[in-house]
TrEMBL record, chain A:
The keyword Magnesium does not apply. This is Acyl carrier protein. Gene3D superfamilies: ACP-like (1.10.1200.10). Keywords: Phosphopantetheine, Phosphoprotein. Residues 1-75 form the Carrier domain. InterPro entries: ACP-like_sf (IPR036736), PP-bd_ACP (IPR009081), Ppantetheine_attach_site (IPR006162). The lineage of its organism: Bacteria, Pseudomonadati, Bacteroidota, Flavobacteriia, Flavobacteriales. It comes from the Bacteria. It comes from Flavobacterium tiangeerense. It holds the Pfam family PP-binding. SUPFAM superfamilies: ACP-like.
UniProtKB/TrEMBL annotation, chain B:
Keywords: NADP. InterPro entries: L-xylulose/Carbonyl_redctase, NAD(P)-bd_dom_sf, Sc_DH/Rdtase_CS, SDR_fam. The keyword Methyltransferase does not apply. PANTHER family: D-ERYTHRULOSE REDUCTASE, D-ERYTHRULOSE REDUCTASE-RELATED. It holds the Pfam family adh_short_C2. This is 3-oxoacyl-[acyl-carrier protein] reductase. Homotetramer. Belongs to the short-chain dehydrogenases/reductases (SDR) family.
C-alpha cells in the first residue's frame, strides 16, 4: 500500500514540478512537508478514491500521511 | 468530446443533444423518460448517443450510478450541460415547502453534485472541461409567479461564477446561459395572453428560438469559447 500511495503522491507532485519523494513517513504533513495546496489535495483524494474506492476527505480534513494510512487500513 | 447533458427527452435538451451529435460529440444524455423523438435520435446515433434513464431528484446515487456504473471513471468528460429543471410556479403566499424542496433538488443540488463529480473526474484525466448551466431571464427581470423558480436559477449563477474562480487554473470553465422564454413544455402552463405579455417585454417581440440557444451552448462547450468563463450569456431576444 505504501508504494502505491507514494506513486500517487508523486503523480500529484508532478503538477508543481516539485522533487519526487523517495519514501513516506506517517508524520509527514501533506501541506507543510509535501507542499500540497487545496487543489492538489483534491486531486490526491480523487486518485486515492479511484484506486481504493475511499473518499479520504469525506469526514473532514486529513493532515498527515499517517491519517491516510489509517483511513485505508480501516476499509 | 464527451459531453454530459441532462434533461434530453424533449425541448432544449433534445435540440442541444442533436446539435452536439451533428458536430461530432459523444453525448452522455440523462432523462427521466424516453420520448419518441429521443428514441429516433438514439437510432440515428446508436454509438455516439448514450442514454441513461435517471431521476435527478435522486441525488444520493449520482456518483455510483452516473459516474461509476454508467460513464466509468476512465472516461474523460469535456463538457457538462446542466439543462434539466422543473418549474414550480406560484405566487409567494402559496409557497409549498415540499414542492420548493423538490425543485431545489433537481434545479440546484443535482447540478452542484454533477459539477462536483465532473471536476473530480477531470482531476484524474487532466483534460480541460466546460460547464454550462441553463439559467433563466427571470433571474434578471421579475415575473409574477416565478420567484421560487427564479431563485433556483439565481443560485446556479452564483455557483457557476465561483466554480469558474475556484477551478479555472486547472482548466475548468463555467458559464451560465441565460435563456429568455422559449416555446417549450416548461412555459406551456402559461396562457397565450401571459406569453404575449412576456414576449412584448423583449426587444425582438417574440419567443426565443430554441436553436439559437442550442447553438450558443455548443459554442460555450467548444474550444472557440476557451477564453470565456464566469459569465452569464443572455440569449433572450433582448429583454432590456
Amino acid at each position: 500500500m505504501e508504494t502505491k500511495l507514494l506513486e500517487i503522491i508523486n503523480t500529484v507532485l508532478e503538477n508543481r514540478t516539485n522533487e519526487k519523494l523517495t519514501s513516506l513517513r506517517p508524520d509527514m504533513n501533506l501541506r507543510y512537508d509535501i507542499g500540497f495546496d487545496s487543489l492538489d489535495l483534491a486531486e490526491l483524494t480523487v486518485r486515492i478514491e479511484a484506486e481504493y474506492d475511499i473518499d479520504i476527505f469525506e469526514e473532514g480534513i486529513v493532515n498527515t500521511i499517517g491519517e491516510i494510512f489509517e483511513k485505508l487500513n480501516r476499509k | 468530446m464527451n459531453i454530459l447533458i441532462t434533461g434530453i427527452s424533449k425541448g432544449l435538451g433534445l435540440e442541444t443533444s442533436e446539435l452536439l451529435l451533428k458536430n461530432g460529440c459523444t453525448v452522455y444524455g440523462i432523462s427521466r423518460t424516453k420520448t419518441e423523438e429521443l428514441n429516433e435520435l438514439m437510432l440515428k446515433y446508436p454509438n455516439e448517443l448514450k442514454w441513461l434513464q435517471y431521476d435527478l431528484g435522486d441525488i444520493e446515487r449520482i456518483r455510483q450510478i452516473i459516474f461509476k456504473d454508467w460513464i466509468g471513471l476512465n472516461t474523460p468528460i469535456h463538457g457538462l450541460v446542466n439543462n434539466a429543471a422543473i418549474a414550480y410556479d406560484d405566487i409567494i403566499t402559496n409557497l409549498n415547502l415540499d414542492l420548493l424542496e423538490k425543485m431545489y433538488r433537481v434545479n440546484v443540488f443535482a447540478p452542484m453534485m454533477l459539477t462536483k463529480f465532473v471536476i473530480r473526474q477531470m482531476l484524474i484525466h487532466k483534460e480541460s472541461c466546460s460547464i454550462v448551466h441553463l439559467s433563466s431571464i427571470s433571474v434578471h427581470t421579475g415575473y409574477k409567479g416565478l420567484s421560487m423558480y427564479a431563485s433556483t436559477k439565481g443560485a446556479l449563477e452564483a455557483f457557476s461564477k465561483n466554480t469558474a474562480r475556484e477551478w479555472g487554473e486547472i482548466g475548468v470553465r463555467s458559464n451560465c446561459l441565460v435563456a429568455g422564454f422559449m416555446e417549450t413544455e416548461m412555459s406551456s402552463a402559461l396562457s397565450d395572453n401571459q406569453k404575449n405579455r412576456i414576449y412584448q417585454r423583449t426587444s425582438l417581440k417574440k419567443p426565443v428560438d430554441l436553436n439559437s440557444v442550442a447553438e450558443t451552448i455548443l459554442f460555450l462547450v467548444s474550444n472557440k469559447a476557451k477564453s470565456i468563463t464566469g459569465q452569464n450569456i443572455h440569449v433572450d431576444n433582448g429583454t432590456i
